């Protein structure tokens, strides 16, 4: 999986009213581990499953701003956005989903109220997780393997 260099023009893409929802996801890697979270609310479709920190892009907000804001709200972490990893349309909702590789600029995780749990996982732990979407598991394994090849 080739990681795209983060394009400054992409950061200027803004959410406008009347368009499909934009959702940004952060694959936060640190010390060969990735941060995953679980939502506290049973109202969320992904409740109980491990996911990457994510959130909707607000009207007038660019992707990078939204991702940094959402990660700070959910986990208390500051991050640097290193590169765009993937983009696709959710077949169930029609929303545009954009994933970015991130590096933490702060180290202490402080969960926001919408999370039940946040945890750093080493790759061998991710491959053993059961409460994670199989596509996300493959995606994360690919990211970490690529990072390891580059170092």
Description:
The chain has 151 residues and is α+β, with helices and mostly antiparallel strands. It has a single domain, classed as Nucleoside Triphosphate Pyrophosphohydrolase (Alpha-Beta Complex), CATH 3.90.79. Helices cover 26% and strands 32% of the residues. The chain has four helices and seven strands; from the N terminus they run βαβββαβββαα. The protein has helices spanning 8-11, 63-75, 123-128, 134-150; strands at residues 4-5, 22-30, 33-39, 54-56, 79-89, 96-104, 115-122. Strands 1, 2, 3, 4, 5, 6 and 7 form a seven-stranded mixed beta sheet that branches. A hairpin with a 6-residue loop joins strand 5 and strand 6 (96-104). 25% of the residues are buried. Residues 1-9 have low confidence and may be disordered.
Helix-strand sequence? EHEEEHEEEHH
Q: How many strands, what sense, and barrel or not for the largest sheet?
A: 7 strands, mixed
Range of helix content: 25-40%
Strand content: 25-35%
Q: Give the helix/strand class.
A: alpha+beta
As for the number of domains, it is 1
At CATH level 2, the architecture is: Alpha-Beta Complex
* CATH-assigned homologous superfamily: Nucleoside Triphosphate Pyrophosphohydrolase
- Low-pLDDT stretches: 1-9
The helix count comes to 4
Give the termini separation.
Answer: 16 Å
CATH topology: Nucleoside Triphosphate Pyrophosphohydrolase
Computed over alpha carbons, the radius of gyration is 15 Å
Number of strands: 7
CATH level 1 name? Alpha Beta
What characteristic shape results from the CA principal axes? Answer: globular
What value does the average pLDDT take? 83
């Amino acid at each position: 999986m080739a990681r795209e260099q983060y394009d400054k023009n992409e950061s200027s893409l803004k959410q406008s009213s009347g368009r499909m929802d934009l959702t940004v996801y952060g694959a936060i890697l640190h010390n060969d581990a990735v941060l995953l979270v679980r939502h506290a609310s049973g109202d969320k479709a992904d409740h109980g499953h491990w996911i990457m920190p994510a959130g909707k892009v607000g009207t007038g907000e660019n992707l990078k701003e939204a991702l940094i804001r959402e990660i700070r709200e959910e986990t208390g972490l500051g991050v640097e956005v290193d590169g765009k990893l993937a983009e696709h349309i959710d077949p169930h909702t029609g929303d545009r989903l954009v994933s970015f590789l991130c590096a933490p600029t702060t180290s202490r995780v402080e969960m926001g109220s919408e999370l039940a749990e946040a945890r750093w996982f080493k790759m061998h732990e991710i491959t053993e997780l059961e409460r994670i979407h199989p596509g996300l598991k493959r995606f994360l394994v690919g990211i970490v393997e690529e990072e390891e090849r580059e170092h």
